[in-house]
């Protein structure tokens, strides 16, 4: 079921705690770990799951990343249909989050950052996005693929605006 909740001011610290848990094991492989998605935008309503992206210089490092994450309880799930972005299961003892790995030069990752950063600096657009998400969550309550697809036009428009600037 798709649930959208009001912004939780604990999301940044939840991100930081997961990031800190990953930093040591991924040292030397990961350039940085970014807080992405709606929980990374202060004040934005979101699904209550923090999204993190670990950025590697090249996906050649992916096998080593998979090996270092396995002892922490993460299992590689492949790209889940998003080329260039690799997903991992969340360990049962961890707070709710989605962990992804992508290369620093991945165009899709650049779009994710552009969207996040635009919403952070344009509160009216962030509010409009929240309203859309509430509406779509009601409409597509049990259809995550439909919910995601229905947000695409809005997201693509904002990414186009953000990358033109």
UniProtKB/TrEMBL annotation:
One GO MF term: transferase activity
UniProt source species: Kutzneria kofuensis
Keywords per UniProt: Transferase
A UniProt-annotated Pfam family: GrpB
Protein's name in the database: GrpB-like predicted nucleotidyltransferase (UPF0157 family)
